[in-house]
Amino acid sequence: MITKPEILSPAGDMECLNSALNFGADAVFLAGKMFGMRSAPQNFDNAQLKQACELAHKKGSKIYVACNILPHNNELEYLPDFLSYAQECGVDALIIADLGIMEAAKKYAPKVDLHISTQAGVTNYATANVLYNMGAKRVVLAREIPLDEIAQMRAKIPKELEIECFVHGAMCVSFSGRCLISSYMTGRDANHGDCAQPCRWKYHLFEENREGQFFPVEETGDGTYLYNSRDMCMIEHIPELVKAGVSSFKIEGRAKSAYYTAVTTNAYRHALDDYIAEGDIYTLKPWIREELEKISHREYNTGFYFNHEPGQVTDNGGYIRKYDAVAVCEECIDDTTAIISQRNKFLVGDTLDVLPPSGIPFNIKCISLQNEMGEYVQSAPHPTQRLTMKCDATVPQGSVIRKKRI
After folding, report:
1. Pairing relation of β-strands 62-67 and 27-30?
2. Which helix (H) or strand (E) holds 275?
3. Range list of β-strands (E), 231-356
């Protein structure tokens, strides 16, 4: 019997959390102001963490808190209060990489499930079983593990021990994210969530006696991107992931936008639900695959799941951007009128692409725009400006509105 995996979505702030919940996440992973492996997003203060748990639980979803840095001695004194408060808030699980934090969590948050972070580098069933015996409810596998080995692991660990795997998002050039390049080059510690991503920078070689004379590493114009990993996308391989015994489909991206969270959550939600409903006759609907082209991303690949390394993008370090998120619908007034909050510029007369909370995208035409003073305007040039939009279809509250780049 197939056990339906959960869709686990990222949230770097409250807007991202709401996007994840509105578009179908079974669980959301986020971090407090300390101990999380992403320092770039706003993250959640104590009051927001409690609010996040309340919002998620009201929708039947779970909250997992990343507590997965590799801490230094001077950080440990703050750990007991943080763990106790997480339990008080109703956090469903803590994501942990360090054995000291794991032991502290069992003492100060004994009612909270323990998930072992990908930072721990779990690659085999023996390690998974040891962690289970130490109290782990779930292991988040190293991203370097192929699907056939995941299936082998599933057969050799207790059925109660869950397996979580990344299915979408940025890949790290170093094993399980254990990287020192940023620390060496910028002083920013990747293992404390402060990576400067020097793996994405452009590099040259030069010979010591020819200072200032650069030699491209490859014949690619003015340089090359030595370490620049592709992005993972497993949307076309939902059946293989389920059959391998993956318990949770994890979408990377706590430093990314609410728009990214909405689109990726929605795509994997629909693909997984379709597969569970259709079984062996399942085929991925083209619109689901197309949705993942509407977010900013690097070239896609399937990571290490099929026994080969993904390789790097050596001729550029940039993203592929085909669409812009231009607005969010705050309120549906009637069949053709919506109150929107603007995100990027668009014009009266534009054809816009709407992603509603139901998850099935459709197009509309913007017929007119009025600002907050009731004046008709021809464009929406100001970020977060509230506008009344007339269009030729109903735009449900919570919809994300996009525009295709020309």
Report:
1. parallel
2. helix 258-278
3. 231-233, 248-251, 300-301, 323-334, 337-342, 351-355
pLDDT of residue 230: 84
Q: pLDDT digit string (tens) for 59-86? A: 999 999 999 888 889 989 999 999 999 9
Q: Are the C-beta atoms of residues 326 and 402 closer than 8 Å to each other?
A: yes
Q: Which helix (H) or strand (E) holds 20?
A: helix 14-22
Q: H or E element: which one contains 400?
A: strand 400-404
d(CA 393, CA 379): 19
Q: Is 138 helix (H, G, I), strand (E, B) or coil?
A: strand
Threshold 0.85, pTM exceeds:
yes
What is the 3-state secondary structure of 70-103? CCCHHHHHHHHHHHHHHHHHCCCEEEECCHHHHH
**CA-wise closest residue to 170 among 36, 314, 296, 306:** 296
CA separation for the pair 84, 108 (Å, rounded): 5
CB distance 33 to 69 below 8 Å:
no
d(CA 61, CA 31): 16
Q: How far is 20 from 342, CA to CA, in rounded Å?
A: 20
The DSSP code sequence of 144-202 is T--HHHHHHHHHTS-TTSEEEEEEEEE--SSGGG---HHHHHHS--GGGT----GGGS-
Q: In 3D, which of 189, 176, 140, 157 has the Cα closest to residue 29?
A: 140
Residue 213, Cβ density class (10 Å: 0-12 exposed, 13-18 middle, ≥19 buried): exposed
Cα separation of 259 and 300, whole Å?
Answer: 18
Domains of the chain in sequence order? 6-174+229-301 (3.20.20.70), 323-404 (2.40.30.10)
